[in-house]
Amino acid sequence: MIRAYRFLMRPTVGQTQALGEMLRDHCSLYNGALQERRDAYRHASKASIKYGMQSAQLKGIRAFDQEGQGRWSFSSQQATLRRLDRAFAAFFRRVKAGRTPGYPRFRGVNWFDTVEFPKDGDGCRWDATPHDPVTRVRFQGVGCVRVNQHRAVVGKVKTISIKREGRKWFVVLTAEREQPEPLPATGSAVGIDMGIAHFLADSNGRFVPNPRHGRTAAAKLQAAQQALARFPRVRCDRRTKNHQRAVEKLAELHGKVRRQRLDHAHKSALGLVREHDFIAHEDLKIRNMVKAPASKPDPDRPGGFLPNGAAAKAGLNRSISDAGWGVFLAILTSKAESAGREVIAVDPRNTSRTCPPCGHTAKENRPTQEKFHCVSCGHQAHADTVGAVNVLRAGLARRDAHPG
After folding, report:
1. What phi, psi does 268 have (nearest 5°)?
2. CA angle 165-166-172, nearest 5°?
């Protein structure tokens, strides 16, 4: 089992400068490799350059630029070239699938925030001595950096990454460990229904409120965005101090909302995993749910369009994104795996329109967003609770049909 750990680093002023130079040099390597691939395809009869060819050039590049590229770990530079290779592989995969390709782009200095070290001990070293209260991580060309380790790392460290967020620096570890001991069985099973009015409703009639972190911070985000617009860049490659401060302020607010959303998702998922052995949830296609509605050309007015509800749909899309369903479900699956719990996703169609007692399915069973009133047997309940009950039944049926 592979688990990731993320810790805040406490670099000195000199180490902060060295870390920034490391990111800039790796960004330059990434962009140079991308330019080489573009030139080869355009000017050399559409020749294709692979990772192996570019990795073989690293030795010469490091020897030529010893004060720049030569300072950093050879393995981390190979990882940066693999990152570009994965971007091209994803590009060609999207082309074959008929989707929007999205050709790999050049990265600006502020867009390149991560450097990966594929192996602990090769250009980096995680040093967490049990009897030493101070944890450090060593990077080639930077030195030993203090780390705020807020929890123990279980297992063998496999990879180490540096990540910059604003003015903060983080170290991300991946550790391989054996399957942990499962939590004690509770004998309980639950179905959950994701929503907007409530973050989720379970089949026992309980509700988890939706904190709406994005909407709460909307006024501050709007003010920060307006402040950023008042300080335009002098040139494309030069920013004023006021512009830089406005960018940092906006990024700090977005980072706070993201951390609040993650914290709420972790706590909600942990509560479900601790209380229930079996959890069923809807198999939501969130990417399709937040798509903008298609335009409706007006047949009577060439070049005109009919109303398509785009404004209302945009508000719903913002609410769905603010709820963070995808993040929550990913965290729930990860925690359930560590705790030995079972999680099953079921088809969400008609889960809120089917009556649990009699099984009658009709659109009229749900006259309002919250109310469920079966037109066949008269059963009344909260619509989200009905959906959670039907999700649980579908999950149990799927588990019994596929016991393995």
Report:
1. -65, -45
2. 15
What is the CA angle 36-37-40, rounded to 5?
85
Note the pLDDT of residue 41: 82
> Which residues, in sequence order, are CB contacts of 305 under 8 Å at separation 6+?
295, 296, 297, 298
Report the range of poorest mean pLDDT among 24-28, 43-47, 62-66.
43-47
- On the question of pLDDT at 237 being above 60, the answer is no
Q: Which residues of 233-243 are buried (b: 16+ CB within 10 A; e: fewer)?
A: eeeeeebeeeb
Which token pair is 123? 């250009």
Q: What is the pTM of this model?
A: 0.85
pLDDT band of residue 177 (cuts 50, 70, 90) is: confident
Structure tokens at 108: 């600006």
Cα 301 from Cα 178, distance rounded (Å): 66
**C-alpha–C-alpha distance, residues 43 and 58, integer Å:** 23
Residues ≥6 apart with Cβ < 8 Å to 376 = 355, 358, 360, 362
* Residue 260 pLDDT class (50, 70, 90 cuts): very high
Torsion angles phi and psi, residue 145, rounded to 5: -110, 135
Q: What is the mean pLDDT of residues 64-81?
A: 94
Contact 394, 280 (CB under 8 A): yes
3-class secondary structure per residue, the chain: CEEEEEEEEECCHHHHHHHHHHHHHHHHHHHHHHHHHHHHHHHCCCCCCCHHHHHHCHHHHHHHCCCCHHHCCHHHHHHHHHHHHHHHHHHHHHHHHCCCCCCCCCCCHHHCCEEEECCCCCCEEEECCCCCCCEEEEECCCEEEEEECCCCCCCEEEEEEEEEECCEEEEEEEEECCCCCCCCCCCCEEEEEECCCEEEEECCCCEEECCCHHHHCHHHHHHHHHHHHCCCCCECCECCHHHHHHHHHHHHHHHHHHHHHHHHHHHHHHHHHHHCCEEEEECCCHHHHCCCCCCEECCCCCCCEECCCHHHHHHHHHHHHHHCHHHHHHHHHHHHHHHCCEEEEECCCCCCCECCCCCCECHHHCCCCCEEECCCCCCEEEHHHHHHHHHHHHHHHHHHHCCC
User: Where does the pLDDT of residue 241 fall: very low under 50, low under 70, confident under 90, or very high at 90 and above?
Assistant: confident
Residues 105-110, mean pLDDT to the nearest whole number: 90
